[in-house]
Amino acid sequence: MIQDLLAKDVKISNVEIIKDEITDEETNTRRVFGRFVRDKMVYSFLNARTNKFNYISIRFQFIYTLKTKKVIRNEILELVNSANKSIPAVKIYLNDINGKSIKINFNVEIPYVREETLNFLVPSAIDVVSFAPFLFSSKLESKGFEHQTIS
Questions:
Q1: Residue 140 Cα distances to 24, 40, 58, 86, 107, angstroms
Q2: Burial bucket for residue 83 (CB in 10 Å: 0-12, 13-18, 19+)
Q3: Assuming Cys at both sites, which of 12, 24, 103, 144 could form a disulfide with 29, CB separation 3.0 to 4.6 Å?
Q4: From what superkingdom does this record's organism come (predicted)?
């Protein structure tokens, strides 16, 4: 199960299942929602399994704090759309804008057939989603949205 896989990783702590539910008895659809901490950052996950199709989704939320430029929602949405076209494997969503703070969600979804493949897929998905804020940061800066340094 996903909880055991995450708990094996020495970089990951505080693995927590928030919800484990059967959503469709006919197709035996089961969804497990949870969260974990890696490198002091909180990630969330969804593992959905059915009789025919399975997928894992790893999500990470990052807040960019702008230094100078006024935030215009449409400009940020254009950047998000552009990033979604140019950054493979990651879905990027604008979560919220509050003053000069921009909350962005980064999500990686990977379908799989056999559960044992998660041993290879999940660490890769976490690496990809954890690097996405750096890629989006360069998009922001290229459009004149100077922000606090991320590390």
A1: 41, 24, 23, 14, 18
A2: buried
A3: 24
A4: Bacteria
Task: Determine the straight-line distance between the first and last CA of the chain, rounded to whole angstroms.
Answer: 31
pTM of the model: 0.89
